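Second attempt. The first submission of Probable endolytic peptidoglycan transglycosylase RlpA had a stray character pasted in from the spreadsheet, which I only caught after the job came back as garbage. Lesson logged: always re-copy from the clean sequence file. Corrected sequence (136 aa) follows.
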Amino acid sequence: MRSLTPSFRWNLLCLLVLSLLTTNCTSSAPAFGERGGYVETGKASYYSDKLKGNKMANGKRYKPGKRTAAHKKLPFGTKVKVTNPRNGRSVKVMITDRGPFAPGRIIDLSKSAARKLDMEKSGVVPVQMKVIKTSK
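This time the job returned cleanly.
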């Protein structure tokens, strides 16, 4: 049996390390079956007033006075608590739409929710989002 070349051994080692790293990674996808506990951090933005009355992904119309939000993956009806770490304010919202579609943003909030977090002037703020209750 012939010996392995140094480059082949290096490639084999790289593949082994890569497979070990990817096997131990945890998914960032929400745990939909659990009641609460899923936490995500990132940036939040809020809906423009121009969207008032437009249909959301759940089929209902957007009302700026309701405390609702858009998330890319969480099921409609999921309740989440969103906290602004800059001022400690938090708000509970229900997921009713899909989005946001801007890179780095994890949630789009209604105008009422944005007001509660005191983020109207800045438009985009860092937040922590925690699932309180998933929908059935």
